[in-house]
Write a structure and sequence with these properties.
It is built from 23 helices and five strands. The protein has 565 residues and is mainly alpha-helical. The protein folds into three domains: 184 residues, Clc chloride channel; 222 residues, Clc chloride channel, CATH 1.10.3080; 130 residues, CBS-domain (Roll). The strands form two sheets. Strands 3-4-5 form a three-stranded mixed β-sheet. Strands 1-2 form a two-stranded antiparallel ribbon. The protein is elongated, with a radius of gyration of 29 Å. The two termini are 23 Å apart. It is found in: Membrane.
Amino acid sequence: MVVAISCALAVIVLKIFAHNVFLWANYINKYLKLPYSNSILPIIGIVLTVFVVKRFLDGSIEKGSSNILYAVARKGGIVPRKQMYAQILTSSLTVGLGGSAGLESPIVITGAAFGSNFAQKYKLSQKDRILLLACGVSAGIGAAFNAPIAGVLFAIEVVLTDVTISAFIPIMISAATGSLVSQMILSDDILLNFKGEQNFDFHNTPYYILLGLLAGFVSVHHARTFRKVEHYFNHFSKKPYRKAIFGATMLAGLIFLFPTLFGEGYESIKTLSSSNPESLLENTLLEKYMSNEWILLIFIGVIALVKSVATGITLGSGGNGGNFAPSLFVGSYLGFFVSKSIELLGISSSLPVVNFTIVGMAGILSGLFHAPLTAIFLIGEITGGYNLMIPLMIVSSVSFAVSKRFEKHSMDVKALADKGDVFTSNKDLNILQSINSLNLIDTDIQTITLQSNLENLVELLSSKKQTIYPVIDENAALIGLIDFEKIRPIIFNSFQVKYTPIKDVVELPDVSIDFDESIESIMQKFETSQKSILPVIKFGKFYGFLSKIAILEAYRKKLKEIVIE
């Protein structure tokens, strides 16, 4: 409960700040007649974020909820203390001042940091530390959306890979507490919710299946485009301010053309699901075409595809935020686009556009994060009922299936997979991946050259315990290996020792290990080669030996630590 209350208060600060800045920007546009002035705010926000990170946060900040998965899989649930305040400070500047990203990822990391550091403070076991981390995550989602069930499911479906029934109780208490505190303080205007009654007509099932298919493909497009845009800004890694100004200016241009890209975008989602969605064209270059439904439809469709670019620019240029809110934003726009297109084309005149707008959010959320249960119950809770449960299940499951077909990992896990730190539901593999294989490499190895002779090798065998000797050239590149067990008959024959050249007993290595190879790949090589020791190569040179026994011993110690705790 303490973790949940702490996290809920952080959510309240973030939400109130972001909402008030949005209202202030709209006030300037509408009443002071300064159109598009909100394009300037994201530049200020991103530059300030970079300044704060460099000046007060040691020049770096971990972005994205993938860091929580990494902390659970590799660090035993330990999250740095600075994450308790760093995420709040930087994301409020970025998203609060109009950066096109979401606050939920920073909220989730903050909640995880509260849980982890409370556990560290009171010296709880690793198991309880990870559980308390999950409690912070569930409280964050519960408070951000007033959706405690979604908070519980997100913590279990996304963060925890192994959960017992007993773990549900503290996670549920945290989610309920976070949601309660948020509900007591935050108004309905700030929270994303829909009060209208939604009903499901089974005749529309084919159209919901179509929406699910499109949501899956759009999820793949969003994830890939976001990564490409974010990676593009890696070229500016040594010039953070230049990167911030360049990226923020690009973002300002997009917001100038599409003002609804400003901030989280929840207000535009509410507008889209209202009776006058054409009001989205106010203060845009297309304002005079507000009465033209086709112009509105094209405007909505373009924004749904451009949002990934805007979010990639926001985070890639130095801002802080996440993709949770953008996924809901894109989903609502896609749902509106599909239903309105069917209506304008005359295919069906009775489609409930509001329902498709709402259900579309679950489709993209499920496709991006591979979390269909979270998507279903989150949308169910923020709509105030479960009348749309069947279309939510259809769209979420179809979108998940399509996205999974083209993207093996979810958006968060993909970031870890690219670094070789894949986070999986396989608990044994997670323990194995927590082992640093570099620490297990034996570099104190005696090497020989082709110019040596077997007499020299016999002397080495008599004075050292080493039984496998690498043969290297003048550049330290590995030529082959000499295994004592295989040349034993020669070693004990003095005549052969004297007249057998080294090159006659050298065996070319069938398999070798790269210095930076993943532990999973290393174990696979041990399995296929049936070797107990393999040579390690670093930058083309022999570096040392890695033993399978050493890895298994390290695994046993890790497993013992977890069991004891």
